C-alpha cells in the first residue's frame, strides 16, 4: 500500500509536533509566569493609584512618582510580551502546522488505499505530502527548537497545496468503495 508510509510518517511526526506542547510548558512558561506576575503587580499599583485619585497615604503623588509607576507598568507589559513571544511563535508555527500536516499525511495515506490510479501518480502524491510537511513545519520546528533556520521559503506550503490538488484529482479519477491493491 503506497499510502502506508504517509500513515506511519503522520503518526510519528504527530508525536514530535505534539511534543512541542510540553516543551513550551517546561522551557518557556516559567518566564511567562514570572513576567505575568510582575505585570499584574505593576498594573495593580496603577489601578490602585487611579482609584485613590493619585494619592498615597492621603498625600497627593508627585508627577515624578506617577510617571515612575506608569513606566513600571509599561515595562512590565513589554516584559510580558517578550516572554510570551517564543510561546506564541511555537504555537502558531511548528506546533499548529506540524499537527495539521501530520494529520493530512495520515488522511492522504488512508485515502490512497481507496484510489485506483497509476502507481507512479500515487507515489508522487505520497511523497509530495511528506516533503511538504518536512519543508514547511519541519523547517519551523528546527528553527524554534534548535535555532536552525532553513531558508526554504514557500516550497513546503506549495507542496502541501499541490499534494491536495493531486489527491483531489486522483480521487476524482479513481475513488473506489473498497481498498485497492497497488
Would you write up a description of this structure?
With 182 residues, the protein is mainly α. The chain has one domain. The protein has helices at 4-18, 20-27, 29-51, 63-112, 119-146, 155-174, and strands at 55-56, 59-60. β1 (55-56) and β2 (59-60) form a beta hairpin. The radius of gyration is 26 Å and the shape is rod-shaped. The protein starts with a helix and ends in an 8-residue tail after the last helix. The mean pLDDT is 89.
Low-confidence stretches: none
Globally, the shape reads rod-shaped
| Main β-sheet, spatial strand arrangement | 1-2
Distance between the termini: 6 Å
Structural class: mainly alpha
List the helices and strands and how they pair.
Layout: H1 4-18, H2 20-27, H3 29-51, E1 55-56, E2 59-60, H4 63-112, H5 119-146, H6 155-174
Antiparallel strand pairs: 1-2
Helix pairs in contact: 1-4, 1-5, 3-4, 4-5, 5-6
Keywords:
single chain; 182 residues; mainly alpha; 6 helices
Amino acid at each position: 500500500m503506497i499510502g502506508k508510509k504517509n500513515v506511519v510518517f503522520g503518526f510519528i511526526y504527530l508525536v514530535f509536533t505534539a511534543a512541542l506542547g510540553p516543551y513550551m510548558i517546561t522551557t518557556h512558561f516559567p518566564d511567562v509566569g514570572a513576567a505575568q506576575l510582575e505585570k499584574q503587580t505593576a498594573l495593580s499599583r496603577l489601578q490602585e493609584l487611579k482609584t485613590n485619585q493619585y494619592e498615597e497615604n492621603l498625600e497627593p503623588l508627585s508627577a515624578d512618582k506617577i510617571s515612575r509607576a506608569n513606566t513600571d507598568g509599561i515595562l512590565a507589559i513589554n516584559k510580558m510580551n517578550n516572554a510570551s513571544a517564543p510561546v506564541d511563535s511555537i504555537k502558531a508555527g511548528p506546533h499548529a502546522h506540524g499537527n495539521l500536516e501530520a494529520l493530512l499525511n495520515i488522511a492522504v495515506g488512508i485515502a490512497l488505499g481507496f484510489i485506483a490510479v497509476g502507481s507512479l501518480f500515487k507515489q508522487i502524491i505520497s511523497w509530495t505530502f511528506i516533503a511538504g510537511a518536512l519543508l514547511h513545519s519541519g523547517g519551523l520546528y528546527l528553527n524554534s527548537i534548535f535555532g536552525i533556520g532553513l531558508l526554504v521559503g514557500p516550497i513546503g506550503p506549495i507542496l502541501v497545496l499541490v499534494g491536495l490538488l493531486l489527491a483531489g484529482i486522483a480521487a476524482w479519477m479513481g475513488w473506489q468503495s473498497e481498498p485497492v491493491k497497488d
